[in-house]
Amino acid sequence: MKRIPLTLLCLICLLGGAAVPAQAFWVWTPETNKWVNPKYAVKDTPKEQFEFAMGFFEAKDYKEAIREFRKLLKNYPRSVEAPDAQFYIGKVFEAEGDLMGAFKHYQKVVDRYPFSERSGDIVQQQYDIAVKMLEGEQERGMLKEIISGSGPDYDVIEVFRTVIKNAPYGPLAAVSQYKIGLYLMEKGMYPDARDEFEKVINDYPTSEWVKAAQYQIAVADSKRSVDAEYDQRITASAKEEFQDFLEVYPDAELSDKAKDEIERLKDKEAENNFVIAQFYEKQKRFESAKIYYQIVVDQYPTSKWSSKSLKRIRELNKKD
């Protein structure tokens, strides 16, 4: 047995008598012939280290769990347990309500360990995170307030796009693409939303979400037509989109809604023509005014604007 030098023994005694926290002590380990601080020590095998960290995770001692998982990643980066350790760090962040933090840590598993068996689980976890963010369920950050603000929260879009990138042919790709469009629609970004819905149709033509995307394209055009008082091309385009939808999916659940939208758009077209007629009437261009009033009467006979137009035609004829 080797003898410990006297000076070293004195140093040990001094340290032993110092009033410092227990974690500050360094312990001599004959196995490694080194001084080790238990706070930073790692287990002899990655399996032991992972099980040790999982004990803290299951006890919901998340701070210590992350510390121990990170020890494993630092000391055994190529072990089979490493992807699982990174995955559970993401689980900790999600359990604590930091959804974006969880998403980023899950993505590290995909980036660093592309052949991990966790890949499928991670795509699902990331999709669930995106849905929670979209629905405003994140406890931290109050995303509902952000969503009701002036601009889109691009974190939501980033997570959905990452789901698509991680598994472009997986079962969650088409629905993720669809939800990007739905989110932009809710933000009033109708041209951008339309582009995203078209990607569903073009990139996933056999998906069950194609039907819904086709309907939402018509809705997007319909929403855009609201502010186009004198330009009826957008309104006409929206009406055609709904008519196309009815031709392709006559028995779809959305068909009744599509029919209602067509009637609303027809009413919008009638109103636009009525407004144009009024414009000409104010300019004392009565013949032009009567032409547009007559369009309303002939093409939109069931519209509320038809009776108003007929009344105006009679008044103008009296003036003639």
Description:
This protein has 320 residues and is mainly α. The protein has a domain at 1-41. 68% of the residues lie in helices and 2% in strands. The chain has helices spanning 6-17, 46-58, 62-75, 82-95, 99-112, 119-134, 143-147, 154-166, 173-186, 190-203, 210-224, 233-248, 255-282, 286-299, 304-319, and strands spanning 27-29, 34-36. It has a two-stranded antiparallel ribbon. A hairpin with a 4-residue loop joins strand 1 (27-29) and strand 2. The radius of gyration is 33 Å and the shape is rod-shaped. The termini are far apart.
**Level of helix content?**
55-70%
Strand residue content: under 5%
Structural class per helix/strand content?
mainly alpha
Encode the helix/strand succession as letters: HEEHHHHHHHHHHHHHH
Number of helices: 15
The largest β sheet comes out as:
2 strands, antiparallel
Kindly provide the radius of gyration, computed on alpha-carbon positions and rounded to a whole number of angstroms: 33 Å
Oligomer: single chain
Task: Name the overall outline.
Answer: rod-shaped
Q: What's the count of strands?
A: 2
Identify the strand order in the major beta sheet. Answer: 1-2
Task: State the end-to-end distance.
Answer: 126 Å
Low-confidence stretches: 13-24, 137-150
Q: Please state the average pLDDT score.
A: 82
